[in-house]
Structures are given as structure tokens and as C-alpha cells.
């Protein structure tokens, strides 16, 4: 799943080398934390959060097929 998130986000940003995805396991759920270069935060979030919402939709759909509860946080 981290590879999926990195692939999507690296295509959007100007500094792909600064993309970092970490994961935490909490009581049956997985939290992914996405960290990008400060200049790229706006590109990942998008206007009115549309790009962030689209990324979350793809990640949640991939997790749903595995019956996992997934959360994506953009740091």
C-alpha cells in the first residue's frame, strides 16, 4: 500500500525524493502518514482538498478489498 501511495504522490510533486510514507498499526486499523516537501503540500492537497480526497478514495478502495480499515494523514 505504501508503494501505491508513493507512486501516486511522486507523480504530482516537484520534489519526489522528499516523499515519505510511514505506517502505524492500531487495533485492527492501519494509519498511513504522508510527508512531502513543504513546497509540495498544496499540490498534494489541491483546491478545496480535491486531490487529497481522490488519493484517499483510491487508498480506501484498495484497502477495502483486503477488509482493512485504512486512514491516510497528510503531514
Automatic annotation (TrEMBL):
Transmembrane segments: none annotated. Belongs to the KhpA RNA-binding protein family. It is found in: Cytoplasm. HAMAP family: KhpA (MF_00088). This is RNA-binding protein KhpA. Forms a complex with KhpB. A probable RNA chaperone. Forms a complex with KhpB which binds to cellular RNA and controls its expression. Plays a role in peptidoglycan (PG) homeostasis and cell length regulation. It comes from Ectobacillus antri. The keyword RNA-binding applies. InterPro entries: KH_dom-like_a/b (IPR015946), KH_sf_prok-type (IPR009019), KhpA (IPR020627). The gene is khpA. Its main location: cytoplasm. The keyword Glycosyltransferase does not apply. Keywords: Cell shape, Cell wall biogenesis/degradation, Chaperone, Cytoplasm, RNA-binding. PANTHER family: RNA-BINDING PROTEIN KHPA, UPF0109 PROTEIN SCO5592. CDD domains: KH-II_YlqC-like (cd22533).
Amino acid at each position: 500500500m505504501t508503494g501505491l501511495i508513493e507512486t501516486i504522490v511522486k507523480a504530482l510533486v516537484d520534489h519526489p525524493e522528499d516523499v515519505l510514507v510511514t505506517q502505524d498499526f492500531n487495533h485492527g486499523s492501519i494509519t498511513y502518514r504522508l510527508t512531502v516537501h513543504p513546497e509540495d503540500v498544496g499540490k498534494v492537497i489541491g483546491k478545496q482538498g480535491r486531490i487529497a480526497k481522490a488519493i484517499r478514495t483510491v487508498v480506501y478502495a484498495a484497502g477495502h478489498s483486503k477488509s482493512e480499515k485504512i486512514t491516510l494523514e497528510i503531514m
